[in-house]
Every structure is written in structure tokens, then in C-alpha cells.
UniProtKB/TrEMBL annotation:
Protein name: histidine kinase
Binding of ATP, residues: G274, G275, A276, G277, T278, G279, K280, T281
Signal sequence interval, chain numbering: none
Catalytic activity: ATP + protein L-histidine = ADP + protein N-phospho-L-histidine
E.C. number(s) listed in UniProt: 2.7.13.3
GO cellular component term of the entry, any: membrane
Species of provenance: Promicromonospora citrea
Disordered as annotated region, ranges: 581-600
Length: 949
């Protein structure tokens, strides 16, 4: 049976086509000779291995066929496209080994032409400013370093001259392969070329790649640089996930940056931090499996913040390894997955089995022996009743149940305070609201009332449960040396309270590989900041941070991080968190931002957005609508259902299902991810902060910003933010970029050129004719030989200028080289013609969507590419040529053409008329152009302002 390999990113398909593509690949996996598949090789293909197969009458799958010496056939599936586009793609694609890395990669040899039309009106040129030192050059990275790592020369050149982060990310995210993207991002993050080589096992192919066999390419698929992009389909579930566009498998994919944190032994507690989407949870899953494989009898606890996240961890663990042993109870061999609260509740419920003395622990924590501690306290209601009974002496700003719960959890419980005197002298490090002796005494009255009410009801809250369990476990360990677990792994640690951290510490003996915590201070949305060392978790020297985001697109990440800008965040070691280096390895569309006038309009906009995504063929369960409150979530769910959109409200006890759009609060979305997300932000931040004591408002604002950051980083692909102007929500404070309108002159480009030619002919042409006529008259009338000779020269020059003008006007009327129009898209025809003559060309054009380029600019780019490729073919026949063109209004246009130099051709060519002409064209537009050898390549580098006249 043939094997099928899929890349990490393939074009999405709608519902009906998705099912047909699934059926095609299923048949292909079972028997590639099945009638109806029509697996056909390509004529005039860049790669002899390229194939297409029939999905239906109008669509074909693009494949690379590999047949190894074992006679087993493998197909690399590159997506399903309309018939003509599939043929074009298959002819232009090459599956090869990167000669510098040994990894497999897909290279396009055609030009990307998904471009806007050229503009008919051109604003004046923007001034060219002196650029600062490029990012990579500032880190000591050279062109040779990048090429030796396996970065394509043209990409290397562009990356080397990127002077700001946005420009650099644009280059990195459009690199030819995922490995090249990652390598550039690693280097920009301060990693060395040696670290990149080691992580990806970069080593050149011995003997080159010109004679690569199918066996060579099959072997290359197992290279670390390849595994980022290509995965073998193991079963029907993998196939369905690939075709349906499900990204579940990528939730558990381990990137090389994360590999060392999975397998490296630790000498004690370890802290792994990182921004949203950097793969902290993936590391935990793989590390849990690694520990289990190393010792199948090991008792491993994998824990997180809430039940929804725990259910997601279980699902992802099964996705990663269906054979892994899951433990039903903490303390059993295998991997037990659950919340910290569930672990505490289970251990208290089975106290006798675990030899826990609950009464003794209650005396130490609560000041009185109790064993009825399993039922849960209705926390907010009980604090409110305690306030009503005993809170008269508290000032109004402290008569706040949230503040009281926080003071109890962060001051009273972790210090095991059970008397008024102990509280009056207790430490309150990190608390924002100062409390004098009188206020502490008044507050203690409320604490005692709360404890009495809970004791009467026979309940405890979850912080109390965690603290009781921690104390009881420590007491057992003190006498027996026994702990419940061998290894504890913790997700979302930034929001755990002191009692919960103390419980985690008490679960496992202090030793190598004991406690592994993943956290992100920017996602702290529940709890005030804490310091691990205060609760017995010491990670000094054992703390690392992930910086590459593999989930969120660069566009969404940039938007989300604006909510954090200008504010100071601290981590679990009381360390400042700086995410200026946080980068995404994915690109996508910019966020959609809608500012509505009313709540009704906001709900309607949300529903319309969801409907549009569903119409695109997106699976309902991969779409989420995130709101601030439970009431808002219920309203959205009701309105979606009324609009005919099946929706599920995901609450604290719910597990997300399939076939329905998911609706939940922003808090509930913590730790989750979805393909497309609507963030509906209707609530006022100011009103939320007003309910807090003044001393807590600064941290409250940080948590509100973190909540918005959490919500907007849940999207893998598309993000829509809907807010109400003037509501005070964070969404309304972000500017939405407006697309530049296309030219609306009402004339075609040909009509405009003809009109301009007539105008020039009627003005300049007429003037030149008058000069020639007057010079002729003066020549005849004058008696002076010197005057006659001089006027004859004037007449001849005017006539020559007139002839040249006519040539120019002919070109203007028809376009360059007799074309009816010249645009970036015309480069396709030019390069295709050169390829037919035997040129080896790879090329990419990227122009920012929604913007148009002027005629002069596109004509200049066309001429530069034409001349550069012609020179490359002339001086280095048979060698590959790579063209890259990128353009955007704020950064201008960059054209880079690179080709290897033949042996012996190492000096810069004399500036012949072609190169001189390119330089003059660039300079006439206010730009620059250089053409010179570099590291064995000849590089033409043109930098042009966007707006030209």
C-alpha cells in the first residue's frame, strides 16, 4: 500500500470538496492504480516526480511520487486545486534536498502572481531615509553564515538588510521552507549559527544533490528540518485531520527549539516560560510521555488550571501517543491528568488510602480539627454572609468579596494563620492594599466568621483543600518518606495560588526531574503575582524561556501584544518579563476590527462573521466566540442558534464537542486554541476596576490587559475583534488599518497611456518642431557661415530629439516591449519565456494586499528583473537564478536577483550599459541599486520607494 505524506500547511477546502479529497487520498493509500484516480505525470515539468490526480471533474490533487529501492511508493500530497491551477503548480514545483541542510523541501520555480492591479495615478515619491544598522548584521551574522545554514541566497540577502523587526519578519515568514523561517527567527533571537546547526542537525549533502535518487529524498523526510513540514499519515484519523483542516495534530508537534526541554534531565524544579503559542503545553505532553517511557511504573501527575484544560490535555496526550498508560488516580503508575483542585479533592476523599491525617492538618491550617472537608464551599456567597455579619468595622473599599478571598488565599492560608495575633504580625508581601493594625483586626473578624460558617456547613473552599492536602502529605512524608508522585508537571502555573503551589511541592520528593512548571506572566488573568521560592519551589539557574510562537500568526500576535505594551510584568521568580523578542513562525491575514455603535450591532457583526467563516468550509468546532461574561456568552449562543448556527456554550464543567461553534468567556478560553476566533469585547475595563480597592487597581488593569491578550492569541488563523465605541473595552482602543482604495480614474491603463502620449506629442513634440523650423529659417536667412553651421546643428538636434520622442511615445502607447500593459504580473510571462529557453528560475513576488503600485515603479522593476536575468543567463548559463520582489507602501519595493558564479568568475563585471541603466532607473526614482559578487553569488539588490511620479 502506498504511503502518503502531508505538509504542515495545505490549502483549506470547503465541505463537499473536502469529502471528495478525503475519498481520493483514501483510495490512493489503498491502491494507486485504482481506476478513476488518473495519476498522471506532467509534461514540461520542473520535477519528473510531479503528478496530478483526479479529485472530481474540476479539481485535481498535486502530488510528488517517490518510489524507493524497497519498491514501496510514497506520495507527498501538496493540496487540491482547480484543474488548470493544479497543472500549473505541478509543472512548477520541485521536491528536493536542501544541499546545505540535507532536509527535504518544496521549491516553486514559477512566479507568485496573486497581485493587485497597477495604479493609474501615482502620488509623488516618498523621501528615502538613511536606514539604521540591519538586525542580523548588528548580531554579527553574515551572508555566508546564512547561505551555509541552508537559507536561500536571495532570502539571505533580504534578511541581512532588514533594518526593523516588521521587515525582517516579512522576509522570514515567506522563506522557501519552515526550516529557513525558523533558522532566521532563531538567529534574530540571539541564537548562534552553531545552536541552529545542532538543533536541526544541519550538515551539507556529500557530493551535492544534482543526482538525488528517490531513496535520498525519502531519507531526507526523516531529517529534523523536514519533520517540521512533512508528516506520514498513519491512519484514517490522521487523514481526516489533514483534509478537514484540523490542526489537532500540530498541537502536539514538537519543534526542535522545544526538543531539549523534553529530554534534558533537571537537577530539581524547572521553570519553562514563554508567550502564547510558544509550545509550553506541547513540551509538557512530550516530557510526560518521555518520563513514562523511561519508567513505565513511574507515578506521573500532569496538572493544569481548570477542567476544560485538563480535558484538552487528555485529548492531546491521546493524539500524541495512543499507547501511553493513563492513571485513573494520582499515585497510580502511568500519567494522571487533572486539575490541581481535582487532585486535592481526590486525595482528601481517599485520605485513609493515602494515610492522610486530615484532622491534624485542619488543626494546623484552620485552627480546629475537622474531617468534613470534602464538600465545596460556595465561596462568594459565604464571604458575602460573613461580611454582613461582622464587616461593620471595615471601610467601604475593603467590603469587597474578591479582595477578602485574595487576602485569605495569599496571606492567611499559606502562613497557616489561625489566630488574630498571628494575622496582625503576618507577612503581606506583594499585597497592593496596605492594612494597618485596626484594619487587620477588623478583617480578621470576617475571616473567623467565614470559617465558622464553613465549619457549620461542613465545607471547605479549594484553596483550603489544597493547603490541607499539602500539610497532610508533608506529615506523611516526615514519618514514612513516601510521596504520592515521582514526577509532577504543571501547566498554566502563573495563575496558581500559594496553597496550590504548596500542594504541588508536597506531591513529589525533592530530587532530579521532580517538578516541571510551564507559565507565562503575560497570561496571568486570575491571581496576583507570586514568587515560587516563597513556597518551597526553587528554580534559580533552572529557568528558560521560549520565544518562537508556532500557533498565532505574526499579524495576530502583533495586534495582541499591543495590549501589553508599556506595562511591566513579572514572572514567578520576581523577574521582569520582556517579550520584545517574541516572534511568530506563521503568517496570515490581518485581524478584522469592527467598532460598533450599539450592542445589537455588535452581536449582529459577530454572527455575520461566524456565518462567513462557516461558508468558507471551516469546521464549526474550530471556531470560537469569546466574551467577557457568562451572560454575554449565553446571549451569543442564543442568537447564533436563532440564526441557524449550531453553537455550544462551554462552561466550567463542559468539554468542547464537535459540529458546533464554541462560545465561552475569555477566562474559559485560557490555554485553548481555535482556528478562527471572534473576540466580542463589550464590557468596560474602567467599571471593572472601580469595584476594586484602589491599591489593587494597577494589578487589576494588568490582568485585564492580559485577559485581552489571552483572548486574541487563541486564534490560529483568523481573528475578528468586535467592540463598541466608547464602551471602555480594550478592543476599541486599537486602531484599525484601512485598506488603500484602488485607482478610480474610470480609464483603462491603455487609454491613460494613449492620452498621455497625445498630450506629450501636442506639447513637447510641437515645441521641438517649432525649434527645428525656426533654426531652419535662421540657417537660410543668415549670411554668416558660423551662424548657419550653428543653427544647422540646432535643427539636426531638434529633429533627432523629435525622432527619439516618437519612439518613446510609441512605447508609451503600447507598453514596454510592445505590451498593452506592464505590471508585476507580466513578469510571469517574461520568466516563463526565459524558462522555455532553458533558464533555471525560481521566483516569488509578494505585494501587500489592498495596495497598488504605480506604472513607473512596475516598469522599472520589470526592466531590472529582465536585465538581471538576461545577464545571469549570459554570464552563468545553466546555473539557477532566484528572483524575489517584495513591496508595501510603508517599506517600498525590494528586488533581489541572485545566481551562483561559475568557477573563476569572482570579480565584479565592468559596469556595462545594462547595469548602468538599471542603476540610473533606480536612482531616477529616488532608490538605489547595487550589483556585485558576494559569497560565490552575483547579487542584484534594488531598493525603490513605493510612490513614484
Amino acid at each position: 500500500m502506498p504511503q502518503v505524506i502531508i505538509p504542515s500547511e495545505i490549502p483549506a477546502l470547503d465541505g463537499s470538496l473536502r469529502a471528495q479529497a478525503w475519498a481520493f487520498i483514501d483510495k490512493l493509500r489503498r491502491d494507486d492504480t485504482t481506476p478513476g484516480l488518473h495519476i498522471e505525470p506532467m509534461k514540461q515539468a520542473a520535477d519528473r516526480r510531479a503528478r496530478t490526480g483526479r479529485v472530481n471533474d474540476g479539481w485535481r490533487a498535486v502530488l510528488i511520487k517517490l518510489t524507493g529501492s524497497d519498491d514501496e511508493t510514497r506520495y507527498v500530497y501538496l493540496g487540491t486545486y482547480p484543474h488548470d491551477k493544479a497543472i500549473e503548480y505541478a509543472r512548477s514545483v520541485i521536491f528536493q534536498r536542501n544541499p546545505r541542510t540535507s532536509g527535504a523541501e518544496v521549491v516553486r520555480v514559477d512566479l507568485v502572481t496573486d497581485l493587485p492591479p497597477t495604479s493609474s495615478s501615482e502620488p509623488s515619491a516618498a523621501p528615502v531615509e538613511t536606514a539604521p544598522l540591519p538586525l542580523l548584521q548588528g548580531l554579527g551574522i553574515t551572508f555566508e553564515d546564512l547561505v551555509d545554514l541552508g537559507v536561500a541566497p536571495s532570502t539571505a540577502h533580504e534578511a541581512l538588510f532588514a533594518t526593523d523587526q516588521d521587515r525582517f519578519l516579512e522576509v522570514a515568514l515567506t522563506a522557501p521552507s519552515a526550516f529557513q523561517t525558523d533558522a532566521l527567527l532563531w538567529l534574530a533571537d540571539g541564537r548562534t549559527t552553531g545552536e541552529v546547526r545542532a538543533a536541526y542537525r544541519v550538515q551539507p549533502v556529500q557530493g551535492g544533490t544534482e543526482r538525488d535518487t528517490d531513496d535520498d529524498l525519502i531519507g531526507a523526510l526523516d531529517h529534523p528540518a523536514s519533520r517540521m513540514e512533512f508528516t506520514y499519515l498513519e491512519d484514517d484519523e490522521d487523514l481526516r485531520a489533514a483534509i478537514e483542516g484540523s490542526f489537532a495534530r500540530w498541537r502536539v508537534f514538537l519543534h526542535p527549539e522545544q526538543h531539549s526541554y523534553v529530554h534534558a534531565p533537571t537537577s530539581g524544579a524547572f521553570r519553562l516560560s514563554g508567550g502564547a503559542g510558544t509550545g509550553k503545553t506541547v513540551v509538557l505532553l512530550h516530557r510526560a510521555r518521555m518520563l513514562h517511557r523511561r519508567d513505565p511504573k513511574a507515578r506521573i501527575v500532569l496538572t493544569t488550571f481548570n477542567r476544560t484544560l485538563a480535558a484538552t490535555l487528555v485529548a492531546n496526550l491521546r493524539q500524541l501517543d495512543r499507547e501511553v498508560l493513563t492513571a485513573r488516580r494520582p499515585g497510580d503508575p502511568g500519567i494522571h491528568v487533572g486539575t490541581v483542585d481535582a487532585v486535592a479533592r481526590h486525595l482528601l476523599s481517599h485520605a485513609a488510602d493515602n494515610k492522610l491525617d486530615v484532622g491534624s492538618a485542619a488543626r494546623a491550617v484552620l485552627g480546629a480539627s475537622r474531617t468534613d472537608v470534602v464538600p465545596a464551599t460556595p465561596t462568594s456567597a459565604l464571604w458575602a454572609e460573613a461580611l454582613r455579619l461582622t464587616g461593620d468595622r471595615l471601610p467601604e473599599e475593603l467590603r469587597n468579596t474578591d479582595f477578602l478571598q485574595s487576602e485569605y488565599a495569599y496571606v492567611v492560608l499559606p502562613q497557616k494563620i489561625s489566630t488574630r495575633d498571628a494575622y496582625l504580625h503576618g507577612r503581606r508581601q506583594g499585597r497592593g492594599v496596605p492594612l494597618g493594625r485596626a484594619r487587620r483586626a477588623a478583617l480578621w473578624d470576617v475571616v473567623e466568621a467565614y470559617r465558622r460558617l464553613a465549619a457549620t456547613a461542613g465545607t471547605t473552599d479549594y484553596d483550603e483543600k489544597a493547603m490541607l492536602t499539602a500539610v497532610a502529605l508533608d506529615e506523611v512524608a516526615a514519618t514514612t518518606g513516601r510521596r504520592v508522585a515521582d514526577h509532577v508537571l504543571v501547566d498554566e502555573a502563573q495563575d496558581l495560588t500559594p496553597a496550590r503551589l504548596l500542594l504541588l511541592r508536597a506531591l513529589v520528593t525533592r530530587r532530579a526531574d521532580d517538578l516541571f512548571l510551564a507559565e507565562d506572566a503575560h497570561q496571568r488573568i486570575y491571581a496576583p503575582p507570586i514568587v515560587l521560592a516563597r513556597y518551597g519551589i526553587h528554580v534559580a539557574g533552572r529557568s528558560r524561556r521560549l520565544r518562537l510562537n508556532y500557533r498565532t500568526t505574526a499579524q495576530n500576535l502583533d495586534y495582541a501584544t499591543r495590549a501589553l505594551a508599556g506595562h511591566d510584568f513579572v514572572g514567578l521568580e520576581d523577574d521582569a518579563v520582556d517579550d520584545t523578542g517574541l516572534r511568530s513562525a506563521r503568517s496570515g491575514p490581518p485581524p478584522s476590527l469592527s467598532r460598533c455603535s450599539t450592542t445589537s450591532e455588535a452581536y449582529e457583526t459577530t454572527i455575520d462573521t461566524v456565518r462567513r467563516w462557516l461558508a468558507d468550509g471551516v469546521l464549526p468546532e474550530t471556531i470560537a466566540v469569546l466574551v467577557r461574561t457568562g451572560n454575554e456568552a449565553a446571549t451569543v449562543r442564543r442568537d447564533l442558534e436563532r440564526a441557524g448556527v449550531p453553537a455550544q456554550l462551554v462552561g466550567s464543567k463542559d468539554t468542547p464537542g464537535t459540529g458546533r461553534v464554541l462560545v465561552m468567556t475569555m477566562h474559559r478560553s485560557k490555554g485553548m486554541e481555535f482556528r478562527d476566533v471572534v473576540v466580542l469585547d463589550l464590557s468596560s475595563v474602567e467599571r471593572a476596576l472601580e469595584r476594586m480597592p484602589a491599591g489593587d487597581r494597577a494589578d487589576g488593569l494588568l490582568r485585564e490587559r492580559s485577559l485581552f491578550y489571552v483572548a486574541t492569541t487563541r486564534a490560529r488563523d483568523r481573528l475578528a475583534v468586535v467592540g463598541i465605541g466608547g464602551s471602555g473595552g480594550l478592543a476599541t482602543g486599537t486602531r484599525a488599518g484601512a485598506a488603500t482604495p484602488l485607482g478610480q480614474s474610470g480609464l483603462t491603463a491603455a487609454e491613460e497611456r494613449a492620452a498621455l502620449a497625445r498630450e506629450v506629442h501636442d506639447t513637447v513634440g510641437h515645441s521641438l518642431a517649432r525649434i527645428a523650423l525656426q533654426a531652419s529659417a535662421l540657417e537660410v536667412a543668415s549670411d554668416s557661415p558660423a551662424v548657419r553651421e550653428f543653427t544647422a546643428q540646432i535643427r539636426a538636434a531638434a529633429r533627432q530629439a523629435g525622432a527619439e520622442l516618437q519612439d518613446l511615445l510609441a512605447t508609451l502607447r503600447t507598453g514596454a516591449d510592445g505590451r498593452t500593459d506592464v505590471s508585476f504580473a507580466d513578469l510571469t510571462e517574461l520568466l516563463n519565456g526565459l524558462k522555455e529557453q532553458g533558464a533555471r528560475i525560481t521566483s516569488t513576488v509578494v505585494v501587500e494586499e489592498g495596495h497598488t503600485a504605480g506604472r513607473t515603479l512596475t516598469r522599472t522593476c520589470y526592466r531590472i528583473v529582465q536585465e538581471s536575468v538576461t545577464n545571469a543567463i549570459r554570464h552563468a548559463p545553466g546555473f539557477p537564478v532566484d528572483i524575489k520582489l517584495r513591496g508595501a507602501p510603508d517599506s517600498g519595493v525590494t528586488v533581489i536577483v541572485t545566481n551562483p558564479l561559475p568557477d573563476g568568475l569572482v570579480r565584479a563585471p565592468r559596469p556595462h550599459s545594462g547595469i548602468t541603466g538599471m542603476v540610473e532607473r533606480a536612482e531616477s526614482l529616488g532608490g538605489t541599486l547595487s550589483a556585485r559578487p558576494s559569497a560565490g553569488y552575483f547579487v542584484v539588490d534594488a531598493r525603490l520607494p513605493w510612490a513614484m511620479t
